[in-house]
Known about the structure:
Elements: H1 5-15, E1 28-32, E2 35-38, E3 43-46, H2 49-52, H3 61-71, H4 85-97, E4 104-109, H5 112-127, E5 131-135, H6 144-149, E6 167-170, H7 181-194, E7 201-206, H8 220-233, E8 236-240, E9 264-267, E10 278-283, H9 284-287, H10 303-318, H11 321-340, E11 346-352, E12 355-362, E13 365-369, H12 371-383, E14 386-387, E15 389-391, E16 397-400, H13 408-425
Parallel strand pairs: 3-14, 5-6, 5-7, 7-8, 8-9
Antiparallel strand pairs: 1-2, 2-3, 4-10, 9-10, 11-12, 12-13, 12-16, 15-16
Helix pairs in contact: 3-10, 4-10, 7-8, 11-13, 12-13
Amino acid sequence: MSKTNESLMQRRTAAVPRGVGQIHPIFAESAKNATVTDVEGREFIDFAGGIAVLNTGHLHPKVVAAVQEQLTKLTHTCFQVLAYEPYVELCEKVNARVPGDFAKKTLLVTTGSEAVENSIKIARAATGRAGVIAFTGGYHGRTMMTLGLTGKVVPYSAGMGLMPGGIFRAQYPCELHGVSSDDAIASIERIFKNDAEPRDIAAIIIEPVQGEGGFYVAPKDFMLRLRALCDQHGILLIADEVQTGAGRTGTFFAMEQMGVAADLTTFAKSIAGGFPVAGVCGKAEYMDAIAPGGLGGTYAGSPIACAAALAVMEVFEEEQLLDRCKAVGERLVTGLKAIQAKHNSIGEVRALGAMIAMELCEGGDVHKPNAALTGQIVAKAREKGLILLSCGTYGNVLRVLVPLTAEDALLDRGLAIIAECFDELA
C-alpha cells in the first residue's frame, strides 16, 4: 500500500504528542530549491522556507557537497573533547560579519533557543546582574528561560505554570498599532520605576524585526535610543537575529540597518541551510566572562553543520544573495500591494528585505484582527499548491519566507495563487 498524507497523519497522531503542532497536514518526500514534493507526488511552492531556515533553498548543491565531503572525514568528536577546524573557521567568519567595531568571539550551539539561553547566561556573568527586559510580541524559543522571554502565552507556555522570574516586559514600538518609540522607551522607564532598578538588569533582548510577533520592524530611532539607554545603565543589548539573520532582511544581519551594534547577537535558522547550528557572537570581554566548562554542549557546533554553514556563507558571496534578497522583496511587495489595493481586508503589507508580511483585518480596520480569514487563506493556498505561514499575536498575519534562490517565475506563481485566494475568500 502506497503512503498517503492521511495514513501518515494517523500514524503521527498515534506516535507523536499533540503538543508538537503541524501547520499543514502534508508529509514531504523530497524538495529542491523553492519547491517541495509530498509523499503522494504533489509539488508545492514553498513560501515558508522551513520557517526562515532555507534562505539558500532546499538542498543547495554547494551545501550538499560540503556536507558530503565532511561526512568522509568525521561527524562528531564533541568540540570540548577534540576540536576541529570548521568550528573555528565558522566562528571567525561570524565574528567578521556581526555588526560592531570591537573584538568579538562566537559560541556555537545547536538551536535558536539554546543560543538565546546562552546569551542570557553570558550577560548575567558579564554584568553580575540577573534581570532581563524583553518585549511584547517577542519570540525567543520554547525552553524554560526563553519561554519567559517570549511574549505570547498561548500556545507556547499555556498550562505550564509561571515561567522563570526576573523577566520584565516592555512595549515593542509599532506605529500601526499606536505604540511610538516614545511609548516603548517610556515602558522601559516604568520598569525601572516600578519593578527593577537598572543596576538589577543584565540585558535587554530584542528582535530587530519581530518574527512570530508579526514581522514588525524596530524603528532606527528607537534602536539608537535603546542603545543609549543600555550604555547609560551598563545593560547589555542582545539582538535576537535567529530569524532575521543569514541575509533575510537584505543585510546579513538586520542590525546592520539599525544604526547601532548589539553587545551580543544570537543566530541560527538559515545560517546552515537546513542543518542545525546556532550561536552567540559578542564582545570578546563579555563572551569570556564564563569560565571553561560553563558553555558548550555535546552536539554544539557539529562539524557537519559547520561545514554546511561555511558553504552557505560562500553561496551568499558567489550568488550575491543579499542583492537577490532585495530584488525578491521588491517583487513580492509590489505584487502583494497590488492585491491589497483590491481588498480592504489587507490592513498593511510590510517588509524588510525579503522578510515580508500581510496583516489581515476586518473591514479595513487594523485594530480588528482577522485571524479567521488568515487561516482560510493559508488553507486555500495549500489547496492550490502554495505553502504559507501565519503569525502574529492575534494570528492575523501572513508571512512570506521564500528561499532567496527562488526564480522570478516561481515568485509570480505564488503571488498569483495568493491573489486567487483573496478573490475567492475576502
